[in-house]
Amino acid sequence: MSRPTKDEGLALVVVYGEVGRKGGWRLTRVTDISISEATVSQYEAVGSVVVDAYKALLGEGLGKSYEIELLDVARRAQSCLVIVALIDNVVAGSITYVNDRESPYAESLEEGEVGLRMLAVDPKLQGRGVAKALVRHCIDLALVDGAEAIFLYSSEPMVVAHGIYHSFGFERIPRRDFKMKDGGMLLAFRLDLGRSSL
C-alpha cells in the first residue's frame, strides 16, 4: 500500500462521542476531528500548540532550548511526518511520527521500531479525544509501514498521556528509561504490533 504524497496529504476523519448524565438528562457531545499531515501553512500553529501544551505541564522546566526545538516544525518535517489534528479547521493537536532510525528525531529506536514524539493537544481543547485520535492514526501508519513495534519516551508529569498509551496496549519498558542531565526521567513505552489486537 503506497503512502499518499505530501501534496495529497494523509486524511482521516474521526468522530468522537462522549456520553454523560447531568440532572437526569443524557448528554452526548460529538466532535469532528480531522487528522492529516501538517502543511507548511500550519507549521507555526502546530509549534505554538505543542509549546503551550508542554508549558502547561512542565512550566519553566520546559527549558528554552527544547522550546526552540518544539517550535521548529519545519525542521522535523524534513525527516519525520508531523501529523496535525484539526477541530473546525483550527489546530487542536499534533504528534510526530518517526519511521526512520537515522532521523535526528529517532530516540533509541531498535530494529523494526517506529517512534512517536511530541504528542500535544491545545490545553483549551483537551478532553475531546484529540490525543487518542492522533495515536490511533500513528498506529495505523505503523501497520501500513510494516513496523514490528512503536516506541516512545514520555516525561514523568505526563500522566494523562501515559493513560492513553496504556489504553492502546503500550507497555512500560523500564530498562529503556532515560535519565536526563537535569535529573528528570524519560519513561519508555512500547507497543508490540505483532501481539496487539488493534
UniProtKB/TrEMBL annotation:
Gene3D superfamilies from the UniProt entry: 3.40.630.30
Keyword Transferase tagged: yes
PROSITE patterns given in the database record: GNAT
Single GO molecular function: N-acetyltransferase activity
Domain N-acetyltransferase: from-to ranges: 33-192
Residue runs in coiled coils: none
InterPro entries named among the record's database cross-references: Acyl_CoA_acyltransferase (IPR016181), GNAT_dom (IPR000182), NAT_camello-type (IPR050769)
Keyword Hydrolase carried by entry: no
Keywords: Transferase
Protein's UniProt name: Predicted N-acetyltransferase YhbS
Gene source species: Ferrithrix thermotolerans DSM 19514
